[in-house]
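quick one, 138 residues, struct below
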Amino acid sequence: MTKKEIVKTISEEIGLTQLKTKEIVQKTFDAIVETLVEDHRIELRNFGVFEVKRRAARKARNPRTGEKVFVPEKFVVTFKPGKEMEERVRELERRANEAARQQAMQSNHAAATPPSASPPHETFGSATSYEPGSGNSA
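---
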């Protein structure tokens, strides 16, 4: 989902113009970034925690050349989802697993069930072909 889609959804749900909603959404994002820069942490109850963490310098390997390279220390933003978010994602995972299990059961059932004998085809006429004037009247 893009910021534009978020703005549209919120705008429709609460009855504000998209322009005003966009301003509010952008101010919210700006406040999150400013808090991270100043305090290195922002906790949004029932959502999660953003934190700025220092990633130490390290030696790494260039995957293309295999050459050893030095990666300097840097600061990264991490996110730890809140309890409600984790529970909802876990429920999504549970549903996906259940759907996969049911699909596997149906596939196994279909593979184990022999195809039903098809009813005999009706045949018209005799085994010999009919040719006009041959005297065969089937």
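Residues 83-112 form the longest helix (30 residues).
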